[in-house]
């Protein structure tokens, strides 16, 4: 999953994927039930975490799907441990940060330090959901309910865990190395993503030899929640074909 998110966020998708695959869901370093060491993390470090998890589970290789920060970890896994990767789905990815992206990641940390859980949840929602979702009354009500329950998280991410993840996101820079990743790759996102804009996906597809692109209309960074059924079947069909 992406920055701030625990692995449990995958459940609406894993419940469908597991009809066809064995699904392994991890908590990234710095969040959930995994270790949350002090200091900066890197996407290479977190890719090595997942390589170790695959080894521990005696899984020789796997289809890899990563969302946002998870996509950067997936890129590094394919670069550093190519033998472990059958194919890739990179959701709302980037291969490098421009100054705007670096500013957003720093602002996420600043907000976490100063906001209540409900206020922080609102900022993240504004960052990842499209206008179409906010304009849908049912969807907007669900977002409000999510904010109201934000303080109930039994295992909230500590600020130092978020800082470590933000450093990994900001310093991720692998565009040149992606040209050596030969595994079939689906790059997928939303056309109205203000967090990781379309150009970030486009330059990855232009660099990776066996990558293809699909972008949802009127969808943001959380395009997979805005199009749950289509996303689940689309990704499942893609993995079954590769």
Automatic annotation (TrEMBL):
Signal peptide positions on this chain: none
Top-level taxon: Bacteria
GO molecular function annotation: hydrolase activity
InterPro entries the record matches: AB_hydrolase, AB_hydrolase_1, AB_hydrolase_fold
Keyword Hydrolase: yes
TM segment ranges: none
Protein name listed in UniProt: Hydrolase
Organism name: Emticicia aquatilis
């Amino acid at each position: 999953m992406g920055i701030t998110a625990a692995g449990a966020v995958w459940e609406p998708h894993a419940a469908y994927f597991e009809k066809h695959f064995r699904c392994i869901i991890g908590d990234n370093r710095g969040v959930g039930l995994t270790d949350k060491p002090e200091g900066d993390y890197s996407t290479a470090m977190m890719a090595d975490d997942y390589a170790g998890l695959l080894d521990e589970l005696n899984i020789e290789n796997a289809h890899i799907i990563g969302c946002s920060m998870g996509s950067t970890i997936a890129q590094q896994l394919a670069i550093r441990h190519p033998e472990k990767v059958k194919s890739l789905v990179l959701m709302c990815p980037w291969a490098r940060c421009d100054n705007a992206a670096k500013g957003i990641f720093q602002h996420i940390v600043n907000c976490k330090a100063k906001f209540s859980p409900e206020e922080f949840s609102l900022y993240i929602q504004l960052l990842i959901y499209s206008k179409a979702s906010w304009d849908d009354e049912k969807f907007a009500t669900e977002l409000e309910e999510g904010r109201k329950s934000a303080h109930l998280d039994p295992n909230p991410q500590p600020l130092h865990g978020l800082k470590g993840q933000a450093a990994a996101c900001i310093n991720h820079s692998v565009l040149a190395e992606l040209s050596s990743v030969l595994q079939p790759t689906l790059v997928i996102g939303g056309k109205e993503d203000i967090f990781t804009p379309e150009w970030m996906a486009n330059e990855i597809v232009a660099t990776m030899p066996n990558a293809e692109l699909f972008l949802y209309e009127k969808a943001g960074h959380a395009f997979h929640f805005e199009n749950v059924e289509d996303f689940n079947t689309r990704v499942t069909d893609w993995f079954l074909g590769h």
